[in-house]
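Suppose a colleague, Dr. K., hands you the sequence of a protein chain of 160 amino acids and asks what its three-dimensional shape might be. Before reaching for any lab equipment, you can write down a predicted structure in token form. Begin with the sequence itself:
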Amino acid sequence: MGGGSHTDDVPEKRHQVARGVLGLAGTGVMAVGAWLLFADTRAGTVPQVALWLAGSLVAHDGLLAPAVLLTGLVLGRTAGRTRGRTVWRGALVTGGCLTAVALPVLLAPSAPGNPSLLPLDYPRNLVLALSITAGVAVCVFLTRRTRGSWERRRQRKGRS
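The predicted structure, expressed as tokens, is then:
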């Protein structure tokens, strides 16, 4: 009776089904978005959207991805093999993405003509989101560190 049991394959099958369903849902949402873009917008909007998409690709591939890779490299060299390295990398990536999303609004030369377009306090909200990200990262780091030291103490007691 060698090999794995049938129950070992069940979680993998569920994951495959979930991926397929999410992929189909995403494709459907993109199709609706494309249809709305071409069928339900003013003339001249499609080139503006294409320019915006091209700019976002350039910003991602030219700025965000190299910054994340460089930060990961520096963090990997300075943090060594510490347990929290992945936590700090995740926090930095999240913070970088939050900043990249908020940066156009923060660097806008003037307020929009319609004050209802940007009704929120974006600088305050960015600081709040970055603070929450840092707080979650610290909590996860401390939880992992505490759990790791607790497990090491438990193993030492078991050996004695």
